[in-house]
Write a structure and sequence with these properties.
Blueprint lengths: L2 E2 L3 E5 L2 E5 L8 H8 L18 E8 L2 E8 L12 E3 L13 H8 L9 H15 L8 H7 L11 H9 L10 H11 L5 E5 L2 E5 L3 H10 L4 E3 L5 H6 L8 E3 L9 E3 L3 E5 L4 H11 L4 H6 L3 H6 L2 H7 L7 H6 L3 E5 L4 E5 L4 E3 L2 E2 L6 E8 L5 E8 L10 E10 L2 E10 L6 E2 L1 H7 L6 H10 L14 H19 L23
Parallel strand pairs: 2-6, 8-10, 9-10
Antiparallel strand pairs: 1-7, 2-3, 4-5, 4-6, 7-8, 11-12, 12-17, 13-14, 13-17, 15-16, 18-19, 19-20, 20-21
Helix pairs in contact: 2-5, 14-15, 15-16
Length: 497
């Protein structure tokens, strides 16, 4: 028998919606197309890669509306509870006129077959409303980043970037933020959402104590955060998730706190917000932030979910490990803090007890003498999974290395440190010979696998080459600047006449 403590409540294009009998794993995309007949949102890949299904979700953050583009294909309907959902249908004027974003796409010839166009428009609309009422306008680089999760097979990206610049030249169309904010306040409920549909239950606790109690009662439940991985389990692997406990309604897990010695990031903080905070302290993370998946994935995914998942090709763990990050594990009975490297035991196996959850990640603030870089190698520059992810942190006294921490993803069954390489660096002067010795030592640290992303030989050679690149960029004399290139570089240049 299906039951709900109360229906899922949210705004759909400004109108209050209640969904009382909905499967916990029903995707927002299917709900929009099949239940609401909002067919402008398209299914392209069903795995959050192509962006054809991009929608914008709004929620109150510090009592103000925050809008974020996400992939509807890997979001579940109950996750919308208390939020606002906007689709491409919302942009049409009451007189059926086009929104400036849409008109710019027409005038700049940014659409050909049109299948991907609604997704591009929603990403651009998110950018449009974020800049509305301000004196700033996104440049081509910022627009390219905003569109990193949208793929087009027809036009190429230059005219779409052109449309992003042109959309601000039309008569402005303002979003009535005050009205949306008030509707969300009126909809706000203190009651946790609990659904039952067939054999699946869904719980969205509001308090950390409620979450840990649920985890203790249901140690085999699926903990759901951003759904960027779990959405694929449902869409591609057809998994039965069983009992689902959603963690992102717990306010205690959504905070970022600055202490004297470290940054404490709650497990439910989005990757977008987490990287923004961490990059302020470690500007060397800027490129990794931009290359970590795409904007919609970073908006939905959480740092805690990335850490708890422990994928050997996850991009956060190598540099977090290199920077001595710690993870706070909590249950209804205790809380403990361990070095992040101690969390990973084997492929998809961690040291957490069944009743524990990740509460927070603690990142030490930069120490004097720290020399740090992190690098990612993948087949595509944007929105791709790493073949190799490397992180190097040297703690220096002048030109001498006091301590070295080197960590890799994609080189083993878990993200882990390169102990032989570290030993070859510690206590040495940071010179060419030291770098070459550390590169050779890497061969004793890993025996990489061959898979679809890269061969073992490629991984071994490029891991060593990344260490040498690190040396070239940080050596005392004639250090090379860090290079940053993008697949969108051509879109940032003037088109040929």
């Amino acid at each position: 028998m299906n039951a709900a403590s109360r229906p899922v409540q949210f705004l759909l294009n400004g109108i209050a919606v209640k969904a009382g009998d909905v499967a916990p794993t029903r995707t927002v995309l299917d709900y929009l197309r099949e239940d609401q007949r909002c067919v402008g949102t398209k299914e392209g890949c069903a795995e959050g890669d192509c962006g054809a299904c991009t929608v914008v979700v709004g929620e109150l953050v510090d009592d103000a509306l925050q809008l974020r583009a996400v992939n509807a294909c890997i979001q579940f309907v109950p996750m919308l509870d208390g939020k606002a959902l906007f689709t491409v249908e919302y942009l049409r004027g009451r007189d059926r006129s086009l929104h400036p974003v849409q008109q710019a796409m027409v005038d700049c010839h940014g659409s050909q077959c049109g299948f991907c166009t609604p997704g591009f428009i929603m990403s651009l609309w998110n950018c449009y409303v974020d800049h509305a009422g301000t004196d700033t306008r996104p440049d081509r680089t910022e627009l390219a980043t905003a569109l990193s999760g949208n793929l087009c097979r027809c036009t190429g990206y230059r005219p779409i970037i052109d449309a992003g610049e042109a959309m601000f030249t039309y008569p402005a169309v303002a979003l009535d933020r005050a009205s949306i904010e008030q509707q969300l306040r009126d909809m706000r409920s203190s009651e946790s959402l609990n659904l039952s549909h067939g054999s699946i239950t869904y719980h969205a606790p509001r308090q950390l104590a409620e979450l840990t109690a649920l985890r203790e009662r249901k140690p085999d439940c699926t903990l759901l955060a951003g759904c960027t991985d779990i959405g694929l389990w449902v869409n591609k692997q057809f998994r039965d998730l069983g009992d689902i406990v959603y963690v992102c309604s717990v306010d205690e897990l959504k905070t970022i706190k600055h202490a004297d010695t470290h940054l404490r990031i709650g497990a439910a903080v989005s990757l977008s917000d987490a990287y923004a905070a961490m990059t302020r302290h470690y500007p060397q993370l800027q490129e990794m932030w931009e290359r970590f998946a795409s904007v919609p994935i970073r908006n939905a995914g959480t740092l805690g979910g990335n850490v708890a998942n422990g994928s050997p090709i996850g991009d956060s763990m190598p540099w977090l490990i290199a920077l001595c990050a710690r993870v706070v594990l909590t249950s209804s009975r205790h809380s403990r803090t361990i070095d992040l490297q101690e969390l990973y035991v084997d492929y998809q196996v961690n040291s957490m007890s069944p009743e524990e959850i990740v509460e927070a990640i603690e990142l030490p603030l930069p120490a004097p003498g720290l020399v740090f870089r992190t690098y990612k190698l993948s087949k595509r520059y944007d929105s791709d999974i790493s073949a190799v992810c490397a992180a190097f942190a040297l703690y220096m006294d002048g030109e001498r290395i006091i301590t070295a921490r080197v960590a890799f993803g994609g080189m083993a069954a878990i993200p882990r440190r390169a102990s032989a390489c570290e030993a070859a660096l510690a206590g040495k002067l940071w010179t060419e010979s030291t770098a070459q010795a550390a590169m050779a030592a890497l061969g004793n640290d890993f025996t990489p696998l061959d898979d679809m992303r890269a061969s073992a030989n490629y991984r071994s050679r490029t891991a060593a080459n990344l260490l040498y690149r690190f040396f070239l960029e940080t050596r005392a004399d004639n250090a090379l600047p860090a290079s940053r290139t993008s697949v969108f570089d051509f879109a940032r240049q003037e088109s040929p006449v």
